[in-house]
Design goal:
single chain, 238 residues, alpha/beta, Aminopeptidase, six-stranded mixed sheet, 7 helices, globular
Length: 238
């Protein structure tokens, strides 16, 4: 009980230490309809993703996506949608379609890494690489490469998320050449975020710390918000 109280107190203090989401950013795109952020929890249903030491990736993907959805929904001018509402299998190309049907302004796919190495890397943010060959899975519908302008927008989103994570003291890197079908939307800036290596006990252990999880999802939400605010401001000037 004492340990629980200490954690709750620490979480409260951390919330006070994190600055509020920018009013200036909110006001720049809160007029009219909200900007839609589509969250894509990786895997689902019969697709378990990586299973390491009893940890099932599809479950972790969904848990973090739901927490991120809560963070985004608290932000004025933003609304969050999910490509899967529960433990369901959704083909990769269908996830891109669902983001478009939801009127998405940004697509963020949530995953974990499965790398056989001892060195921690932290969070990795991927955007699509034009010349990266993607092998289609059996039964998966192939998609054409997104246009260069869309890849450039996805790159800006990736760097904005990385910047926000680093501001909160979370190690993060941006990686191009992302060979993932969910990054091939022709009209929606899209990134894939790997939140840690499932084989690294230290990285995964942090995700079970409620304070770290709050900090992580808030940082990602603020990065998305900053990107959409900037995009809206640029559009308003045209």
């Amino acid at each position: 009980m004492m340990r629980l109280r200490r954690w709750l107190a620490l979480a409260f203090l951390l919330q006070l230490s994190i600055p509020a989401l920018s009013e200036e950013l909110r006001d720049s795109f809160s007029q009219g309809r909200p900007s839609i952020v589509v969250l894509d929890p990786g895997h689902g249903g019969r697709d378990l993703g990586a299973v390491i030491r009893g940890r099932v990736e599809k479950e972790l993907d969904f848990a973090i996506a739901r927490k991120l959805q809560e963070q985004i929904s608290r932000t004025r001018g933003l609304a969050a949608r999910m490509t899967r509402a529960g433990d369901a299998f959704v083909p990769l190309a269908d996830r891109v379609d669902r983001a478009r049907e939801a009127g998405g302004d940004a697509l963020v796919s949530i995953h974990f890494d499965d790398a056989r190495r001892s060195r921690s890397r932290g969070v990795a943010v991927y955007y699509y690489g034009r010349f990266q060959k993607i092998r289609s899975r059996p039964g998966e519908r192939p998609l054409p490469d997104p246009p260069r302008s869309q890849i450039a927008a996805s790159r800006r989103l990736a760097f904005r998320i990385r910047e926000s994570l680093r501001e909160q003291g979370i190690q993060a890197a941006v990686i191009d050449r992302g060979a993932f079908i969910v990054l091939k939307s022709p009209a929606i800036p899209s990134v894939l975020v790997e939140l840690g290596n499932l084989r690294d006990s230290a990285e995964i252990g942090r995700l079970f710390d409620p304070v770290y999880r709050e900090n992580l999802t808030l940082a990602i939400a603020r990065g998305i918000e900053g990107f959409l605010a900037q995009t809206s401001a640029l559009a308003a000037k045209r």
